[in-house]
Amino acid sequence: MLNRHSQIAIPPEAHFIRALFLQLPYDRPLSSPERGEAFNIISRSPRFSTWQLQPAELQQTIDRLRAEASLSELVDAVMHAEILDTGKPFWGEKTPENIDVAEKLASAFPDSKFLLVTRDGRDVAESLLTAGWQGWTVQQRAAYWTRSVHAMKKVAQRHRHAMWVKYEDLVLESESALQRICDFLGVAFEADMLRFYDDANANITKVERDAGIHRKLSRPPTPDDVDKWRTSTPRGKVFLFECSAANELQSVGYELQYYNPRSYLDRAKSLAYTAFARVLGATYHAYHAVMPAGAKRRLRQNRVAQALRNIVRAG
Question: What is the mean pLDDT of the segment spanning 109-128?
Fold first, then answer.
């Protein structure tokens, strides 16, 4: 939606930003070796190949930085180099995993504006399950969602330019939601943003297409895109998610459907499930830490092993 705005460009997800802010200092000028490391992190990122910027242009962009340039200046220069052909003055970044370094980003970009987009965690969990991301259990997917909410809350508390946006509002009340966002960003609302689906293919990379990601960008949003958990997720799984993320759901405006925090029985069920889920979670991490990649590929091709995996993931 925002990428359709005449002044805002949103490049493909920059999965290297998280690595930059985890591996390099962001509160002082970068040394020459650190600039070299930044080049390596960016150019070797698998997603860098989805950008228009070429390695030689990346190196030139870094070389043109002033001697005392910080990591935020480097990132800003790289982002502007990527969107140069659009002629737009502002860039945005949308990589979900940036939530892991959200506080660092808020500190490094004090004049930037953060859109904190939340979606009902029960729908998020179902999407993660379909994609095979964030663990085997409902509890692991709930932990990912609650961790993200906590990180966004910290940004909202410490950063003077942060705005909460509900995914459901963008779907059900697209125009009014975008008007509020544009007011926050300090740009005029443009109705053309509502027709983001007209050039969706230009905004979806081959990697994302092959993975089946962002399919909904090729059509207008519909009411069926929200609250999908009410019809597609078994009641028991909804209960398990709610008991794992009750406080966070309520704190960002989502009502609980099945779990009652005041019920001793529900709390006992929650404790029992949490203990079981932690065992499975530990098994999951041990599996990925110990099992060689080749052995995991062979297991995924084994029908019995795949069936067991699906049963565990469904829980």
Answer: 95
